[in-house]
Structure prediction request, 131 residues.
Amino acid sequence: MKNLDDKRIAIIGGGPGGLALARLLQTAGADVNVYERDYDASARPQGATLDLHEESGLKALEAAGLMDAFWLSYRPGADRLHLMDKDANSIMEENVAGEGDSSRPEIDRGPLQTLLLESLQPGTVVWDSHF
Prediction:
């Protein structure tokens, strides 16, 4: 990212995408504000588990310098699926690679939000914003 020094950028929405973008832009020197309609970070539950793929979510977190924090909060094995019939016969197994496989690691949205918020400069998120 070139020529971002001294640029002011507004991001609408403090979900995972908006917060990750804010982090990436801040590390490139931009002055960023994220405008979020929630009253604060604890205004509501953040929802279910999110799986991050190597070519997208993980790539963004790596570029943002957040992989160490991610590995401290992810859910090992949450991306595995094993379906069985009523007699306990295996019907399907998915992503049963060995321990440490990182092709689609999952993280709960709450810890991901915390990780991203803590990576931002203080005051980046403008809570209770309504447009």
